Amino acid sequence: MLERLSVCVPDDEILATIEAWLEIAPFDRRAHQALLGTLARRGQLRDREEHVRVTQRRFEAEGLDESWLRDPLQPAAEHARRRRKAVASRFSLPPNKLGSHSPCPRP
């Protein structure tokens, strides 16, 4: 049910919904992928990277395969980096001045 809600709720409620999903099912890959995708779309790459590190340790401690966390995340992170660079060039800002948050307003 929380998986379905995470697709339907407004953007400002999505993180709380996904976090509730993770509390109930802490080893559900779909929940982690939903959270990581949401963080990447919001430009919260540091939070995303921290979640990857914590989740990898948790999966390893339980003897579960955590290799899936490595590869699927790279495209989302690279897309966010390219987007920040494009925004920076449009506004004549050096990309490193943007930090981890996009200057674009959220809908």
Short description:
With 107 residues, the protein is mostly helical. It has helices at residues 2-8, 11-24, 29-41, 45-61, 73-90. It has one domain (2-98).
Query: CA-to-CA gap between the ends?
Result: 25 Å
**Envelope shape:** flat
Counting DSSP H or I runs of 4 or more residues, the number of helices is 5
How would you classify the helix and strand content by structural class?
mainly alpha
Helix content: 55-70%
**β-sheet strand percentage:** under 5%
Spans where pLDDT lies below 50 across 5 or more residues: 95-107
Compute the average pLDDT. 75
N to C succession of SSEs: HHHHH
- What is the total domain count? 1
Write structural notes for this entry.
The chain is an all-alpha fold. The chain has one domain (2-98). The chain is 64% helix and 0% strand. The chain has five helices and no strands. α2 (11-24) runs antiparallel to α3 (29-41). The radius of gyration is 15 Å and the shape is flat. The model is unreliable at 95-107 (pLDDT under 50).
Task: For this entry, give a set of tags.
64% helix, disordered C terminus, mainly alpha, 107 residues, single chain
List the helices and strands and how they pair.
Blueprint: H1 2-8, H2 11-24, H3 29-41, H4 45-61, H5 73-90
Helix pairs in contact: 1-2, 2-3, 3-4, 3-5
